[in-house]
Amino acid sequence: MENKFCENKIECNADFQRSDSPDSVMKETGKTSYQCDICEKTFSQKCRLTAHSRIHTGEKPYHCNICGNSFSHKGNLTSHQRIHSGNNLYQCDICDKSFYQKGHLINHQRIHTEEKPFNCDVCGKSFSQKGNLTTHNHIHTGEKPYHCDICGKSFSQKYYLINHQRTHTGEKPYRCDTCGKSFSQRNNLIVHRRIHTGRNCISVRYAENQSLGQVI
């Protein structure tokens, strides 16, 4: 019987025809339930469990025949191939910006609508992107999942880790267009530019005096 709910019928049917290998991360728990041996998440269709298992195995069976990039899901390969074809199927009807994936268009449209559907259960703050809510939640949980592989220091946001790593690498990506001086932090460049514009010169001098001897 054809599995009409599976997005990829060919892959799904093939999975049902194959017998489970000894090192498989899958096990059948019932007629319509399949469970992952690693994280115990359950699925009603075996093809969905097969796709999920690639999170654990790292398998990427779908390859781009143009650039060689590999993907764990066929849909991701299809979206990627639009980069080569120049076929942007999803276009914003407000600013005409185009996207390769519908999800990216939906996220973009919230810039225009100012919709913030993701709400923090603790403080009620709202966000337009789910990832921003996840990052915000670290404030409440105290979780610091981003670790420096040089000194081991941890951070709640990836942005803070990137800034911190520049203390090790010496990278200064923010450059003044007027005098050429470079900075590791964007805010330091903004303060520095006021020297050239004449804005808040006293505050700038005070800030620079306070930072003497510190790594910029």
UniProtKB/TrEMBL annotation:
Subcellular location: Nucleus
Keyword terms: Metal-binding, Nucleus, Repeat, Zinc, Zinc-finger
Matches recorded under SMART domains: ZnF_C2H2
Residue ranges annotated for the C2H2-type domain, each copy included: 34-61, 62-89, 90-117, 118-145, 146-173, 174-201
Keyword S-adenosyl-L-methionine: no
Tagged with keyword Zinc-finger: yes
Signal peptide interval: none
GO terms classed as biological process: negative regulation of DNA-templated transcription
Cellular component annotations (GO), alphabetically ordered: nucleus
GO MF, one example: zinc ion binding
Name the UniProt record assigns to this protein: Zinc finger protein 2 homolog isoform X2
Lineage of the species this protein comes from: Eukaryota, Metazoa, Spiralia, Lophotrochozoa, Mollusca
